């Protein structure tokens, strides 16, 4: 008997007896748990977590949900500037408020030949970092005032547009507060924008003041001849390096420290006056998923309405703010991160800043002996995106595979067991004790709330993370155009794969989409394009009147609505699931429609996106599915998971020194990955045959925000990826048209 077969037999025997023991214990003690935990109460509360139609007899009716939230003194504030001042009255000035880590040393990573290793054109560095250092509430308020008056000393006036083009960090937060105090208009730009997108946004808004970072100032200086309106540049100081920039004549450059010194010395000359609540206060540029970024115009009143809606989600947290810590690492130019940071800061929650390069113990930027951000900060609240959770899942399973032959099987069994009983209203304290402790330690050990947004989250991944981390996982939905979250699951919601119900002050309704086959009259659940209404809906896109007419409208009651382009399904309990996106619809040559964002509707499966489903495959880190109007098949571009790819190479006796490009084109590697993907899609995830890619290309080049393949929120930039791999896509479709059986993949 081979060693592999022997292991399989031993695992089967072990799991057989484990299931008998667990099942016997479960049903022997079920009456005790029933009386002790009172599951019917949880089920009753969970059943009321959805919205209600204003007219149950009308399938196109508006849906709403109002939840009473505790009164808070900040609710009287009309602008961010007022709220920043008000918070000083609520908490001690010496309370730790904003935390950061200083770079003590950095080391450039080199290959075997001594050449710097680059990822997406950037030199890979490892950082030795300090412990968290904290600014008190009083220091934050003082620095914001100095920044505001420093800007005014440089000539910045109420209504001027000031752009921030920088990475996430404490300086970004302070600067945004200073801009609000001046009464200027904040223009946010993702630091991953390409040159074309950056120039477009700055020239479109005619920005004269630009805030940037030490890392990006060289790039800005090179583009300055193409930025005629630019007059002043303020940069955040970085580690001790030589500055390297050369701006065109007429541009004043100063550091944040110099700006604050000016504000301190000359601040007595200036008076701070915030904007009117209905005046334009921000232009938030999108990440440019489908082309040039679009600026979305928002007012202080809309931001307040968004904050009031968010208050429903974190109502328990905000009344106990000083006892919570939030880890901030997502792009502050993203509406989700920006609004949550401000909201939690005003609620007294400590905010510790981190970076993806040093976030967790497997992050690539950690120097040996340096503790990762999340384990040092030990947050109670975390915002994340599905791609980050998917990486956590794969890291989890890699560690399990390295332990014993039964570790993965027993882990999966206990997680499925916990998920099953949670949905019946029970808690599982023994499973929590056996499984969750080590997983929670990877995230600091104190995490209570995890907010997930930006992209669809598969039910399987949601269930796994919620059960393994033993955390309250809130899955939300929103857009820049809705000023952030407009739908979100409730604390007590027990469902998976949904985005909850409308938040306070939000209305939604479904619009029929005939071409996609969705209608509000569909059975068993109404389906259609989600349309969001409320006082939080923004003023529209900056200088894009035609697009505004297509995307926004005001109804007869004076309420403003935004047509999202996302397709939703409303369940009988009033919760919503995102099932498709209009832009992702592809018509095959046989007349069938396949949506790359489509959720399979074949019972009895749960619905989830094709790409989201296939990313559950252990060999896949990311995937872009591509269709063609004259071919009846889909193809895919695949980003392999480095760890499982390494394991596969060892199984196939491929040398560790083999270049990655050669590995990705190896026929046996390709066949194994494609077979696994097919099995994941059909056997495990129940996707229909036509939704499984017929051919794949395994890509050795990473997709990231830095090379324009992902947005800063880690969503696919489909057009950019397809342009990058156009030759490979054409080759795959040509092979299908010619009925070629091989190759199944084409190396890049």
UniProtKB/TrEMBL annotation:
Which keywords describe this protein according to UniProt? ATP-binding, Fatty acid metabolism, Ligase, Lipid metabolism, Membrane, Nucleotide-binding, Transmembrane, Transmembrane helix
Does Transit peptide count among this protein's keywords? no
GO biological process: any one?
neuron differentiation
What is the enzyme's main class? ligase
> Could you say which EC number(s) this protein's record lists?
6.2.1.3
Alphabetical list of Pfam families matching this protein: AMP-binding
Domain of life of the native organism: Eukaryota
Query: Gene Ontology terms, cellular component aspect?
Result: endoplasmic reticulum; lipid droplet; plasma membrane
Q: Where are the transmembrane segments?
A: 12-36
Q: Which Gene3D superfamilies match?
A: N-terminal domain of ligase-like
The reply on keyword Membrane is yes
Catalytic activity annotation: a long-chain fatty acid + ATP + CoA = a long-chain fatty acyl-CoA + AMP + diphosphate
Q: Which residues form the AMP-dependent synthetase/ligase domain?
A: 130-542
Q: Per its record, what are the GO molecular function terms?
A: ATP binding; palmitoyl-CoA ligase activity
Q: Which family does it belong to?
A: Belongs to the ATP-dependent AMP-binding enzyme family.
Q: What protein is this chain from?
A: long-chain-fatty-acid--CoA ligase
Q: What organism does the record attribute this protein to?
A: Oppiella nova
């Amino acid at each position: 008997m081979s060693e592999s077969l022997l292991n399989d037999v031993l695992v089967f025997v072990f799991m057989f007896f484990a299931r008998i023991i667990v099942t016997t214990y479960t049903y022997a003690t079920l009456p005790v748990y029933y009386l002790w935990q009172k599951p019917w109460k949880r089920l009753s509360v969970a059943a009321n977590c959805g919205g209600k139609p204003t007219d149950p007899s009308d399938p196109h009716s508006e849906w709403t949900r109002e939840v009473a939230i505790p009164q808070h003194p900040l609710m009287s504030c009309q602008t961010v500037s007022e709220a920043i001042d008000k918070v000083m009255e609520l908490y001690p000035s010496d309370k730790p408020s904003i935390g950061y880590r200083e770079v003590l040393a950095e080391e450039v990573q080199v290959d075997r030949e001594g050449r710097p290793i680059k990822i997406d054109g950037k030199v890979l560095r490892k950082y030795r970092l300090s412990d968290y250092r904290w600014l008190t509430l009083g220091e934050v308020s003082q620095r914001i005032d100095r920044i505001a008056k420093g800007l005014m000393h440089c000539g910045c006036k109420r209504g001027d547009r000031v752009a921030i083009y920088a990475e996430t960090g404490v300086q970004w937060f302070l600067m945004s507060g200073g801009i609000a105090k001046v009464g200027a208009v904040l223009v946010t730009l993702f630091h991953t924008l390409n040159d074309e997108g950056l120039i477009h946004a700055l020239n479109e808004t005619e920005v004269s003041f630009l805030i940037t970072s030490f890392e990006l100032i060289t790039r800005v200086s090179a583009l300055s001849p193409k930025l005629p309106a630019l007059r002043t540049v303020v940069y955040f100081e970085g580690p001790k390096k030589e500055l390297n920039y050369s701006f065109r004549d007429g541009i004043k450059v100063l550091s944040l420290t110099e700006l604050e010194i000016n504000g301190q010395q000359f601040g007595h000359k200036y008076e701070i006056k915030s904007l009117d609540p209905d005046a334009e206060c921000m232009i938030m540029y999108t990440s440019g998923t489908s082309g040039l970024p679009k600026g979305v115009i928002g007012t202080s009143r809309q931001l307040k309405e968004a904050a009031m809606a968010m208050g429903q989600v974190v109502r328990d947290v905000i009344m106990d703010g000083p006892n919570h810590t939030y880890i901030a690492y997502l792009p502050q130019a993203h509406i989700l991160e920006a609004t949550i940071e401000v909201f939690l800061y005003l609620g007294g929650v400590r905010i510790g800043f981190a970076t993806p390069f040093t976030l967790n113990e497997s992050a690539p930027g950690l120097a040996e002996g340096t503790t990762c951000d999340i384990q040092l900060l030990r947050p109670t609240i975390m915002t994340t995106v599905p791609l980050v959770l998917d990486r956590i899942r794969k890291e989890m399973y890699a560690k399990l595979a390295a332990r014993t032959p039964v570790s993965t099987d027993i882990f999966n069994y206990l997680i499925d067991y916990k998920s099953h009983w949670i949905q019946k209203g029970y808690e599982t304290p023994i499973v929590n004790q056996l499984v969750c402790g080590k997983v929670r330690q990877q995230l600091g050990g104190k995490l209570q709330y995890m907010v997930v947004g930006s992209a669809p989250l598969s039910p399987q991944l949601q269930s796994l993370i919620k059960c393994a981390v033993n955390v309250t996982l809130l899955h939300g939905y929103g857009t820049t155009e809705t000023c952030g979250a407009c739908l979100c699951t409730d604390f007590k919601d027990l469902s998976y794969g949904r985005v909850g119900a409308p938040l306070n002050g939000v209305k939604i309704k479904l619009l029929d989409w005939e071409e996609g086959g969705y209608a509000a009259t569909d059975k068993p659940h109404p389906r259609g394009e989600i349309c969001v209404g409320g006082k939080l809906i923004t003023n529209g896109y900056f200088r894009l009147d035609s697009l505004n007419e297509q995307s926004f409208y005001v109804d007869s009651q004076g309420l403003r609505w935004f047509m999202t382009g996302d397709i939703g399904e409303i369940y009988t309990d009033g919760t919503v699931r995102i099932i498709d996106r209009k832009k992702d619809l592809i018509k095959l040559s046989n007349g069938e429609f396949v949506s790359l964002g489509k959720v399979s509707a074949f019972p009895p499966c749960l619905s989830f996106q094709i790409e989201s489903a296939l990313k559950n495959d252990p060999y896949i880190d990311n995937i872009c599915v591509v269709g063609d109007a004259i071919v009846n098949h889909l193809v895919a571009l695949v980003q392999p998971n480095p760890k499982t790819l390494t394991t596969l190479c060892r199984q196939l006796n491929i040398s560790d020194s083999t270049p990655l490009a050669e590995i990705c084109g190896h026929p046996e590697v390709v066949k194994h990955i494609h077979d696994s993907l097919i099995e994941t899609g059909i056997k495990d995830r129940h996707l229909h045959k036509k939704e499984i890619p017929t051919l794949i290309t395994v890509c050795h080049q990473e997709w990231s925000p830095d090379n324009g393949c992902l947005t800063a929120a880690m969503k696919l930039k489909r057009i950019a990826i397809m342009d990058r791999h156009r030759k490979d896509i054409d080759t795959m479709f040509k092979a299908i048209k010619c009925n070629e059986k091989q190759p199944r993949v084409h190396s890049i």
